Fold these 3 entries.
Entry 1:
Amino acid sequence: MPALTALNARLRDDYIEEIQGGLNRWNRIPENLGIPFRFKLPHVGFHRKIGNFAGQFISPNGQVMTETEWNQQRDEWMPSEGDHRYIESLMGQVIEPGKFANWIAPPAKGINSKPIDFEYVRFN
């Protein structure tokens, strides 16, 4: 079990490093425009349901809190039911070749230079 925990921690660290690289690129936009805003990752223990942080109440900045304190601020950090409903309203199924959901920009070309309307998946 310790080896599995160590492997999971290493994979999580690699993932966090990759995501931080993306945020660094995104953060150049407001920086170049003189906007005092930066995207940042939450503390690794924030809202964890498995692993070493499971069952603990940790704010996005890493502050350990009581359950009551965390629940009082939860709505500031987590998506609301209204947010979830809105996202679900965007997620209409589109299965016709060459058509794309309204929240996806059509690619310039298909995978492996196939045409856009190539039937990659068959729904029988």
Entry 2:
Amino acid sequence: MRKTLVLLACLLALAFSASAQNQINFASLPLVSAPTPMPSGYFGLNWNNMFYVDPAEWSEAGPGYKLGPILNQDVAFVGESGCRLPPGGGPCFGSITVNSGGSGIHSISFQPVSATVAGGFGPTNITVIAYNNGNYVGSAFYDLGSQMQTLNFPSSWGSITELTVETAAGGALVFYDLQLYWVVG
């Protein structure tokens, strides 16, 4: 009987933690035909130097922007056209941070799980850096093609407050979705 109760408790814990995972996509944003800054607070996050666009309507969208399973759905991406064209053709940086607009009673952070992404204009590489309250937690390097792929973030990062992405010079990172766990403590 005791083993059954322990097993049931473990199964319930797994079920509750699985239901806490959030998949963030960009389907609820207005369809726009030109890159538009991601709205602050979207899904409770701040999106710095991150943009969104309907790739079917944007004439400058590269092949990596147009891979989504749903026609007429916005995608998010790091940087803007100045990041890929000279003289501003250097690396682009974007970051996703917790929205600290609350009362400060609880500290809020997130644990990134994965992201479905593509190189916007062709193959590129990116560096993803995790911070917790301004302190470096870890980084990961990924090679991207212009085909959609899933990036799995290191579970060793644990709970963080900022995820920064750096694209290679001339590259663009397109997000189709982002999966994370909210952590309140």
Entry 3:
Amino acid sequence: MTGIDVDLTAQAHASMPLTEALGMEVVTASQEEVHMRLAYEDRLCTAGGILHGGALMALADSAGAYCAFLNLPEGATGTATIESKTNFFRAVRDGHVDAIARPLHSGRTTIVVETDLRDAAGKHVARITQTQAVLMP
């Protein structure tokens, strides 16, 4: 796929093995925005060839966690999702899904991230807002 950052994808796979199992790839990653992609595959579908909502939520959670990690305060060791709210707008039946995660709040104890999912045609698939707990040693 064009635009995929192989090194960032390898890092995501090493730190979040589910991203590799599902075939997620990282396009770009910065404190301001994380862009990840999940290709449509039959093995990730429900009846009728629709990409499973759980696969979409895993993509959003992974992109959100990556974004939160990049915004950790000094001394923190990681994050953990403590709340996630998803609104689905449309089904995905082919192509791929792009996740764009952006921080809404980067605090000392929590980080709130909003992630938009869009299909290959750019149509809005879902919006996810999640709260990540900041883990300290």
